[in-house]
Design goal:
The longest helix is centred in the C-terminal third of the chain and has 26 residues. The protein is elongated. It has a single domain, classed as von Willebrand factor, type A domain (Rossmann fold). Strands 1-2-7 form a three-stranded parallel β-sheet. A two-stranded antiparallel sheet has the order 3-6. Strands 4-5 form a two-stranded antiparallel sheet. Strand 4 and strand 5 form a beta hairpin. By secondary structure, it is an alpha/beta fold.
């Protein structure tokens, strides 16, 4: 994201990071500090928006009309916990702001107000989505049916005549 924003003009550049703040490294605070220092050196302000619960909650999914929760490789529901301290470090290091979004999303006005105070420039957006391919099962089934047809066709034709 910092590389993308570095190509933008010199007006205020803001990265709005919407996350639960979970980090999978050995030293998450150091990793966040390093990344946010790089952003600050590039003149990027990070506005962090925390979502989720500190107690932990399931990750809801809505895939092609099918709702449910994110599962791990073993088929168990994945739980996520809000890590506010990491999001606060990222925001503070870059002179940004941390907000925790409540279910009514009342903080959206505060986010818009913060961004509105900055110098205006070109607006870009980058969204990252996690998707899982599921077509391979149908493709394998279709391939299997074609093979069955190839092997059974001569037998069925002899029987018909």
């Amino acid at each position: 994201a910092t590389q993308s924003l570095n190509s933008a003009g010199k007006d205020a550049r803001v990265l709005v990071l919407i996350s639960d703040g979970e980090e999978q490294t050995d030293d998450p605070v150091a990793a966040v500090r390093k990344a946010s220092r790089e952003a600050a050196e590039s003149g990027i302000i990070i506005l962090t928006v925390g979502v989720g619960s500190q107690k932990g909650s399931k990750i809801p999914l809505d895939l092609i009309g099918k709702t449910g929760f994110k599962l791990d490789q073993d088929g168990k529901e994945v739980l996520t916990q809000l890590q506010e301290n990491l999001l606060q470090v990222a925001a503070e290091t870059t002179a940004g702001v941390y907000l925790h979004v409540q279910p009514d999303a009342s903080e959206v006005k505060e986010i818009a107000g913060f961004i509105d105070k900055l110098n205006k420039g070109e607006v870009r957006s980058l969204a990252l989505e996690e998707r899982e391919d599921r077509f391979q099962y149908f493709l394998a089934l279709a391939g299997l049916l074609i093979l069955v047809d190839l092997f059974l066709a001569p037998y069925l034709l002899k029987r018909a005549f």
